[in-house]
Design a protein that fits this description.
Elements (H helix, E strand, L loop, with lengths): L1 H26 L2 E14 L9 E15 L2 E22 L2 E25 L2 E21 L3 E6 L7 E12 L4 E10 L14 E12 L1
Antiparallel strand pairs: 1-2, 1-9, 2-3, 3-4, 4-5, 5-6, 5-7, 7-8, 8-9
Length: 210
């Protein structure tokens, strides 16, 4: 009987400790908002001559404690990406200088794990998926004028890749973030073979916990 009572006490104590730990983890879940600047470009065999496009990102995140110093951080971000290019265009024996700007708008969902490696400093890494919401191509032809067209049909609707970055905590509320996103899948969906292009984005910004 004593052995039975001792076993029951152990089970109750273990269950109580487990419940307290779960309650503590739930209490430690944090929500926040973040935003920053994108330094975007295109990579791949068919991205020759692509130049940096400056956009921005903004959205929300959740921090879910997983283990000591380890946090799971899913996010949902609006992200303005793309690239620029410049070069000659030959038409009927005449040469025109063309400046082109591709602007892609994505809703990106990074699924990151963040690990604190030192006081106020952490590293992060994980996959992301992006959903294309719009794409525009603006061409400025020297001596002729400019025109903007819808380029969404030239791109795939989704983008997959890997994100790696770092964070510095100014306070328990405010932190700075630097991150690089490298696309792993081709995003081109135009007719022909010129589809080997991938997203490449470097981001810097600030985050705020509620």
């Amino acid at each position: 009987m004593k052995k039975f009572l001792f076993a029951v006490i152990l089970l109750v104590a273990f269950g109580s400790a487990s419940a307290q730990e779960k309650t503590s983890n739930v209490a430690n879940i944090k929500f926040g908002a973040k935003g920053g600047i994108n330094f975007a470009n295109l990579a791949g065999d068919d991205a020759d001559g692509a130049k940096m496009f400056v956009g921005f990102n903004a959205g929300f995140f959740i921090e879910i404690p997983v283990a000591d110093k380890l946090v799971f951080q899913p996010e949902i971000l609006y992200s303005a990406q793309g690239s620029k290019s410049e070069g000659p265009l030959f038409v009927d024996g005449s040469v025109y200088n063309v400046e082109a700007t591709f602007k892609f708008n994505y809703i990106n969902i990074p699924l990151l794990f963040k690990y604190e490696i030192a006081d106020k400093f952490s590293l992060e890494a994980g996959p992301y998926v992006g959903f294309l919401t719009s794409a525009k191509l603006k061409a400025n032809i020297q001596g002729v004028g400019s025109e903007t067209i819808d380029a969404k049909d030239m791109l795939k609707s989704t983008d997959f890749g890997i994100a790696i970055g770092m964070n510095y905590e100014f306070t328990d509320v405010i932190f700075a973030n630097a991150r690089y996103q490298s696309g792993l899948t081709e995003i081109g969906d135009a007719e022909g073979n010129n589809n080997d292009i991938k997203n490449s984005v470097f981001q810097i910004g600030l985050g705020f916990r509620f």
